[in-house]
C-alpha cells in the first residue's frame, strides 16, 4: 500500500535543520555524513546554505542502510553504484496523483477543494489522513507511525 507522498523541495531548498528533521537524524549526523563523503556538499552560503532533493534522498538512504547495520564505508560504496532516482524510489513515498478530486460521499468544502489528502490505513478500522502539501517532517512522521503501529491487512481483505 502506498504511503503518503513527500512534497517537492521548496524552490529555496532545505536548511540544515529542516534536512535533518526530514531525514529523522540530527544536524551533527548530517555534518558527519558530509565529512565522510557520503553526500556532496552544497555551495556554502553561511546560514543561507540550502540542501536539495538529492541531499534528502541520500540522507534517507543512508539512514535506512544504517538501520540494517551497514558501516559507512559500505554505505558509501552502495550509494555510488545506485542512481539517485533509483534511491528516491526506495526511500521516498510515491508522488500523489495529478488530480485528487473527492470521491462519492466525501465532503468537498470550497476550502478543501484543490487540497489532496492521502489516506494511510494502519489497520482495518483505523486510518491516518495527511494533507499532501504538508511538510516533509509531517510525511516522515506518518511513515514512522505506520511502521511502528500499523499492521498488515488480513489476507483477502481489500
From TrEMBL:
Residues 14-81 form the HTH merR-type domain. Residues 91-110 are annotated as: Disordered. One of its GO terms (molecular function) is DNA binding. Coiled coil: none annotated. One of its GO terms (biological process) is regulation of DNA-templated transcription. CDD domains: HTH_MerR-like. It comes from the Bacteria. InterPro entries: DNA-bd_dom_put_sf, MerR-type_HTH_dom. This is Transcriptional regulator, MerR family. It comes from Sorangium cellulosum (strain So ce56) (Polyangium cellulosum (strain So ce56)).
